[in-house]
Design brief:
Number of helices: 15
Distance between the termini: 34 Å
Shape: globular
Structural class: mainly alpha
Strand content: under 5%
Order of helices and strands: HHHHHHHHHHHHHHH
Radius of gyration: 20 Å
Length: 269
């Protein structure tokens, strides 16, 4: 392996080292998070399932008329929304504290700082792919009987991962300067949660407010996921493209802000 590394260009060696560090951090995140846990990573599946049950108990009968008078359709719609928003809030909230929580380690060792928030996003994406994503694929196959739709379930998730990467990098960088940020961010995630059509249909939102909901980055991702999983029709490429465009904008902004603020991090960690 050492001989192989020596043959690589300096930039390739740096990329190889970054990849190795990222793998170690992802593994460490998952081990620390679920150490001693009975269900392990499957808690990430249990959480949206339980919340879907709560929403169905309270709102299922009222909102079923918006889902072809079917409570089952409401359950499936609520679960897809919960899966998306749960991934967003969990991954970005954990990424926010990743630099500050590892300040002592960064002061002792020269490590790529961006690897810490990125490893949080990657760890959550890994457990999503092992728990929630297979369930969404099975739901898609049972409803649409379309392999194309089942394969396309990954497309809005790519947009979701890009949004979370950008916001995770941005929050991790800002938290180095503003230590009250975690408390403020709880309010932000709660506002995104309420303004996302998770437990209610977007059709009940008044026209005067509906335009503002579409500014929510979660909106096109949730709608695209539901359209692919639940409609039985071919994937709506406009919704997929909107979720990707949103992801590219957030990821670019987060990455450049992180790079811009990075030289000041070590003075504050």
């Amino acid at each position: 392996m050492a001989l192989t590394v020596k043959k690589l260009l300096p930039t390739q060696v740096e990329a190889y080292r970054y990849w190795e560090i990222l793998q170690v951090l992802v593994e460490r995140n998952l081990k620390v998070r679920y150490r001693g846990s009975l269900l392990g990573i499957y808690w990430s599946l249990l959480n949206p399932l339980i919340m879907t049950g709560v929403y169905t108990t309270i709102f299922g009968t009222t909102f079923a008329e918006y889902y072809n008078n079917s409570i089952l359709n409401y359950i499936l719609a609520a679960f897809t929304g919960m899966a998306v928003i749960n991934f967003f809030s969990t991954s970005t909230s954990q990424a926010l504290s990743s630099l500050v929580n590892n300040g002592s380690l960064l002061n002792k060792m020269h490590l790529p700082m961006s690897a810490f928030p990125l490893s949080i996003i990657a760890a959550n994406a890994f457990q999503f792919c092992l728990t929630v994503w297979p369930l969404l694929v099975v739901m898609t196959l049972l409803i649409s009987y379309s392999v194309l739709n089942a394969a396309a379930v990954i497309l809005p998730f790519v947009g979701l991962t890009m949004v979370c990467t950008g916001i995770g990098l941005l929050m991790a960088a800002l938290n180095v300067f503003f230590r009250d940020l975690p408390y403020m961010y709880e309010l932000v995630t709660f506002a995104l949660w309420i303004t996302s059509p998770i437990f209610y249909p977007s059709a009940i939102v008044p026209e005067e407010v509906a335009g503002f909901l579409q500014l929510n980055p979660m909106y096109p991702i949730i709608e695209s996921t539901r359209q692919i999983v639940l409609s039985g029709e071919a994937p709506d490429l406009t919704l997929v493209a909107t979720s990707w465009l949103s992801g590219i904008i957030f990821m670019s902004f987060g990455w450049f802000t992180f790079k811009w603020l990075k030289p000041q991090f070590m003075d504050l960690l």
